[in-house]
Design a protein that fits this description.
about 5% strand, 8 strands, mainly alpha, two-stranded antiparallel sheet
């Protein structure tokens, strides 16, 4: 007997809530990875870890909020708590691998593809491990073609997110990237759910001690990741480097040392020429023969003073000063 699968039993509430959580986790993760690129070396692992945990928690929360709207009308659904928690650990750990690769190896195409494939496979593994934690009186069957499409979507979305983390700067561009990532991750989830069919007759019942309704068992498990995302959001909000984007706030110590070098300070002669406004060696005269400017009188008409040294032209006496 074929079961009647309904992935939208609460209407549009669960898809919208799932999309919001995917966007939130992606936005926090992308900003943290961006921040790690401008942080001191000792703080880089902390920012990368926070970013990976935010992305992993956001994706996992998105998945199980969406699963609250999933039901098979002929049988109740429960969840195996250890497998469900394990899917969260898989999401965070595998995303961490991809994030750390990009954070330390840069944004070269080979690096992005490698880390994107690892992260995308981790997201897909989280999804299908979470599905394996479902308990119902029947068997789940998957359409191989649709499953493959969902994995490809996960890999492409992860690669695009990692590229955005190291290449897109500024608050609003990162916000747009997180929205695109949220669409991709949510689309991957519902594509994977479209691959499911439930066979109730002739299959071994998948019963056990996990017969609670989805909301009653999911709310307590969702509480931890939700609190974590809230705390991560507070950290991001109180870090001016993550909010203000490029500028003096996000100058690394190396950039500041280069800016403060006297020989690179902009002076009256333009960038790189020390002058009264920068450096300690005073003004530097320009090379070439001396020139005179202005309209003068006497033996050197049209020439009054050397523009570099201030001395009068040949044959002209320097101006006299009178004391009173």
């Amino acid at each position: 007997m074929q079961g009647t699968v309904d992935g939208f039993s609460y209407g549009v509430i669960t898809p919208i809530a799932a999309f919001v959580m995917a966007c939130l986790g992606s936005a926090l993760g992308l900003r943290c990875v961006t921040r790690s690129l401008r942080a001191e070396q000792s703080f880089k692992p902390g920012w990368l870890s926070l970013g990976a945990a935010s992305i992993g928690s956001g994706i996992w929360t998105m998945h199980f909020i969406a699963m609250m709207g999933f039901q098979v009308r002929e049988t109740p659904i429960g969840y195996d708590v250890p497998l469900t928690v394990a899917s969260l650990a898989v999401a965070v750990l595998v995303v961490s691998v991809g994030v750390f690769i990009v954070g330390y190896r840069g944004s070269a195409p080979a690096v992005l593809i490698t880390s994107g494939v690892i992260t995308g496979l981790g997201v897909a593994a989280m999804h299908y491990l979470g599905m394996a934690g479902m308990s119902l009186e029947g068997q789940l069957h998957y359409d191989t073609t649709i499953v493959t499409i969902s994995v490809v979507i996960a890999v492409v979305a992860a690669t695009a997110a990692l590229w955005a983390a190291v290449s897109v700067h500024g608050f609003f561009p990162s916000l747009l990237a997180s929205l695109i990532m949220g669409v991709a991750v949510t689309g991957m989830h519902y594509t994977g759910m479209a691959a499911i069919s439930v066979h109730l007759a002739g299959g071994a019942p998948r019963t056990g001690a996990f017969a609670e309704s989805p909301p009653s068992i999911m709310f307590p498990m969702l509480l931890g990741p939700l609190v974590f995302l809230l705390l991560a959001g507070v950290i991001v909000m109180f870090d001016p480097l993550l909010i203000l984007g490029d500028g003096e706030w996000n100058e690394t110590p190396a950039r500041k040392r280069e800016t403060n070098r006297p020989e690179l300070t902009e002076g009256p002669g333009g960038p790189g020429v020390p002058g009264a406004a920068g450096g300690t060696g005073g003004a530097r005269t320009a090379s070439g023969p001396p020139t005179w400017t202005g309209a003068g009188t006497g033996t050197a008409p049209g020439r009054t003073a050397n523009r570099d040294t201030g001395t009068p032209p040949p044959g002209q006496e320097p101006p006299r000063s009178y004391g009173w």
